[in-house]
Fold:
Amino acid sequence: MEFAIISTLNGVTYGLLLFMVSAGLTLIFGMMGVLNFAHASFYMMGAYVAYAVSSVFGFWVGILVAPIVVGLAGMAVERFLLPRVHAHGHAHELLLTFGLALIIEELIKIFFGDFPVNYQMPAELRFSAFEVFGATYPFYRLFIGAVAVVMFAALWVLLTRTRTGIVVRAAERLPAMAEALGHNIPIVFMFVFGTGAALAGLAGAVAGAFYPTNPNMALELGVIVFVVVVVGGLGSLKGSLLASLMIGLFSSFAVGLDWSLANLLGVVGLGDWARSVGGLLTLELSSISATIPFALMLIVLLVRPAGLMGERN
Amino acid sequence: MKRLAMIAATSAAALTASPLHAEPLKIGIIESLSGAQTSTGRLYANAVKYGVDRINEAGGFNGEPVVVTEYDNAGGAPDAADKFRNAVADGVDIIFQGASSAIAGQLTEDVRKHNLRNPGDEVIFINLGGEAMELTGEKCQFYHFRYTTTAPMRVNALVGAMKESGDLGTKVYSINQNYSWGQDMQAAAAAAAADGGYTVVDEVLHDVNKIQDFAPFVARISSAAPDTVFTGNWSNDLLLLMKAAGDAGLDVTFATAFLDQPGNIANAGKTAIGHYIANNYDNAATDGKFAEDYKTATGHYPIFVEGHSAFALGALQQALGTVDFGGGDIDVTKIALALENTTYETPLGPVSVRKEDHQTIRPVVVSKVVENPKYPADETNMGFETVKVIAGEDAIYPVQDSCKMERPAE
Structure:
């Protein structure tokens, strides 16, 4: 019971962090069809901007400024770089953003150095929220989760309940018709891209103070964020939330479980044989916990190629 | 006939006369200078350059300054293999590398094959940081020299020093990365249990630098209620583990191998205090003379791997002093033989090469994180205080049976 409760808590908060980073990515893909490889770099940029700003003006100013700066950077990318390759199709957009990711990483190293920077949460947030079975639970984890939940709610309301949301969705479905009705489609797309980048920037500013802010953070989270988006269904906000939570929970539970194929075979009396063979058969689930999201992606793609909540193939 | 003799005589004279320019000794650094491990790779390269500058200040070698070239392996073994071919084409005699055992494994094999195929044109590989046991085990070879510790040296030093100071306890948890180095650490922690008087309550291996959230691992450690946690984790895996442990209020002592990696102390904050590390070198364990020299030359005190890497160059300088090619061709095998016979005095004690497997016999420093140390880390008020320096002969472990080294004909 203790194990289940702690693992659930850890899994849900980590899942919400993953959602926070992937929300912008799925928004950009869903609305514009651009698969943005530099998305995790925006996340990293957010953490570094927040670090730089917060060291002068304090933590909360950093959290506010980071998404704005990153959002503007995103808009610049959409305005000046993407249109040049748009005519050549998805592969070129992918390559452009991939190159951008590499450039951002090396730029960060030039300005901030190769080592992790000392970006810390403020002292007033550094306390334990409650105690579970003798271990304290840091309040900041709940804070990250809360930011993610607010982000989801705000996006959902914006897209489905407001006039802006109608225009954006119209621009995605029937750009020519929306344009004919007097809406400036390039500007709409620029703002969508900027919002997506800003969300990643906010995620970086919030999470960078909890996990270390270093030049590798984009690389570390980049792959897993793509897994989230693919599992959830490209472009589906609800799918991303569901996939993030699943990945968080699965990874969290896997760590505590010493299951191996040998144990399974032990049920039918082949346990000793399996242990003598070794290799794959004695590999414990906990030692491959970081692989579980990829296994999940494989299964989802086999069963539902469009992802859990994806609409199109 | 007379003319023929004249030609023969002049060409013989031309051949034996010393050339205008002697052959310089060429050193290649094949290091992770871009990509995820840049931070570590850059430090190795710094230290090698510092050491080469010392050699050149003392007049170089073979009548010429030693030439040093950097090759970026981008953190991967395939790129390292490519860069090794570049280096060979450039005429490099000695290569240095430190970040990652996987790359060291690739390079030592490449060097071995190159030397088999090109007798008389050998290359030496000086390994500054690849700690996998197999490099001086199954893969051991004459032209590979390891100028760093291995897992048993670090773990035995930690166990000895922590037991003496009463911080070890009787229950030990072992958490490591799931590859050669982590497995070596786990095996070493288990092997030292009898000597240390502890039981290993649980051990876990996890993916290497892929995990963002260590809270589940900390929950698992917490339920085993250990006194000390042994970990060979480095980079993010160590930092995230310690942060997660601090956030959960886990009351354990960490016994680590890479806590001095830049950024760790600052990021971990007060959580870091009281934890242990065993490594090759620490400024606080010396009289500070070398540290000041290094600072004068490079602008900062030696950090992380810089100290022990500079000593490898010191040993090389000493070995070069015992060979003389008179400005002619450089015989790399002679340098390797000289290196075998070199005992270099570091500020912590002598470092010598064990001829059977080319592992260096070297002192190990055990330190503890304290407030207001002599050399603060990461611009904080925390840093390392020396607990004990274990002499080389006490830290060393027996030669592995798997090492079958073929020596060159002498």
Summary: Chain B touches chain A at residues 34, 36, 38-39, 42, 178, 204-207, 209-213, 215-220, 222-223, 235-236, 239-240, 243, 247-250, 262-264, 266-267, 269, 378-380 (CB under 8 Å). Confidence is low (pLDDT under 50) at residues 14-19 of chain B. DSSP finds 14 helices and 15 strands in chain B.
